[in-house]
C-alpha cells in the first residue's frame, strides 16, 4: 500500500482501532448485561476473558493485516496463495454488511433522541411515558428510516475522505471528545446522593451471584466488545507502518476499551441506584431508564444530551471500520475508486437495513425462526458469523502462518520477548479456539 493509504501516526491508528472496538458492545450492551449478572463479579470475569481471549485475537488480526498490508481478502490471498482461506475475508465482509445494516438503525435512534432532547421533547415524562415514547419512536417508519439514512450518510462521507483525512482525522476528534465527555458524566453520576451503592455494585464482587451463565455471558461479552472476528482489525492494521509497535498498540486498545466499559458502568449504575431503580432493565436501559433518571437531576437533560453524543461518537467510529472493511476490498487500495464504492456499498447497506428499521413497526408481525428481522440480523452476526470468523482466524494464524514469521512480525518496532510470544501463541492455538467454541455452543443453544 502507498504511504497515502497508511495511518500517519501511531496515535491515529490506536484511536481509530479503539474507535472500531468501542461501540454498542461497550456502552450499550455491557451495562445491562452486567446489571443482569451481578455487577462486580461479572466485571472481573469479563476482564479476565478480555485478556485471555480478546487480546490474543486482536494481535492475531494485527499480524495478518500488517504482514500482507492489503485488504482482508487480499491479506489471506497473499499469505496463503492458491487456497480458500481468503473466504475468511469474504465472511467478514458479509458479517459487517449485515451488522452495519442493523447497527445503523440504533445509530438512527441515538440521533433521533438527541434531537428530542435539544428540542425539549424529553422533559418531565414518567418512566412509563418514556417507554411509550421509545416504542412510538422506533415504530414510526419515517423517523426510523430517515434517521438511519442520516447515520449512514455521515459514515459514508467519512470513508470517502480516505484513511488519513477521513477515518484518522475524525477519530482524533471523536475519541478524545468521547473520553472527556464520559469523565464529565462520571463526575455528575458519582456525586449523586446514594450513588455509592452503584459504585459498590460495580466494584465489589458478590461471588454468590456467579453462575455458569454469568461466566458464559462474560466470555461472550469480552469477545464481542473488541469486535474481533469480522476482519476489521486486519483492515486497519494493513494501514500500519512496519515501524509501529503492534503489541503495545494492542494493549493500548484493550486498555481504552476496558476504560470505556468501566466509565459506562460509573455513569449508569450510580445514577440507577441513586434514584432507586433496578440495574437489570435490559436493552431498553439507555432509552427508557436513563431519560427517567436524568430528568430528575438539575440540568439532567443537558447531561443526557452529553451521554447521547458520547454514544453517537462510539457508534460512528465503529461504523467507519465496518464500511471500510468492504470498501478496502472493492477499491483494492485505489483511492480513486474509494468514493464510488463507499457510496454504492453504504447505500446498499442502508437499503438492506430498512426491514430491520421497520421491524418495530409496520413489519413487527413478521417473524423468522422466532425472531424479528432486526433480532435475526443481530443473532446471525453476533452468534454465528463473528464466532466462526474468529475461530477461523485463530486457526489460520496458529497453523497456517509460520511461527517464526509471526514472531518476527510481532517483534517489528517492539522489544517483544520470545517467552511472551510463546504464551500468546499457546493461547491463540489451544485456548482461544476452545473458548470460542464454548461461546458458540452456548449462544446457539439459547
Automatic annotation (TrEMBL):
Tell me where on the tree of life, at the top rank, the source sits: Bacteria
Return the Pfam families for the record. Answer: SNF
Instruction: Report the membrane topology from the UniProt record.
Output: Multi-pass membrane protein
Keywords tagged on the record:
Membrane, Symport, Transmembrane, Transmembrane helix, Transport
User: Where is the chain membrane-spanning?
Assistant: 12-30, 42-64, 85-118, 138-159, 179-203, 223-241, 253-277, 297-330, 342-364, 376-399, 420-441
Q: Where in the cell is it found?
A: Membrane
Listed InterPro entries: Na/ntran_symport, SNS_sf, YocR/YhdH-like
Q: Which family does it belong to?
A: Belongs to the sodium:neurotransmitter symporter (SNF) (TC 2.A.22) family.
Protein's UniProt name: Transporter
From which organism does this entry originate? Oceanobacillus luteolus
